[in-house]
Amino acid sequence: MLAIISAVLFFIAFLINAADISTNDTFSSTNVMLIGLALLALHVAGIGAGWSARGRRR
Q1: Is residue 38 part of a domain?
Q2: Whether 31 contacts 23, CB under 8 Å
Q3: CA distances (Å), 28 to each of 12, 39, 48, in order?
Q4: pLDDT tens digit sequence for 1-58
Q5: Which of 2, 33, 36, 56 has its CA 20 to 30 A from that of 43?
Q6: Distance between CA atoms of 37 and 14, rounded to whole angstroms?
Q7: Does residue 55 fall inside a structural domain?
Q8: In whole angstroms, what is the distance from residue 58 CA to residue 54 CA?
Q9: DSSP letters along 12-27, please?
Q10: Among candidates 8, 3, 48, 4, which has minimal Cα distance to 32?
Q11: Does the residue 54 lie in any domain?
Q12: Per the structure, how many domains does the chain have?
């Protein structure tokens, strides 16, 4: 789930950068991209991955 959100944020950052949309300092394309990278790092670390298969074995 976090990987999908980060992909959407990367796309938004691309649109902001490609269209030269003037935004305030909080929503610049670099900041949106860094939030996307943080979410992608959390996904790779295993946070937000969903259900774990550990408890399902018998």
Answers
A1: yes
A2: no
A3: 10, 17, 26
A4: 778 888 888 888 888 888 877 877 777 888 888 888 988 888 888 887 666 566 555 5
A5: 56
A6: 13
A7: no
A8: 10
A9: HHHHHHHTT----STT
A10: 8
A11: no
A12: 1
Cα separation, 35 vs 52, in Å, equals 25
pLDDT of residue 53: 60
- Verdict on whether the full-model pTM lies above 0.70: no
Residue 42 in any domain: the answer is yes
Task: Please report the pLDDT score of residue 50 as a whole number.
Answer: 65
Structure confidence at residue 42 (pLDDT): 85
53 DSSP assignment = S
Q: What six digits make up the tokens of 39?
A: 């979410």
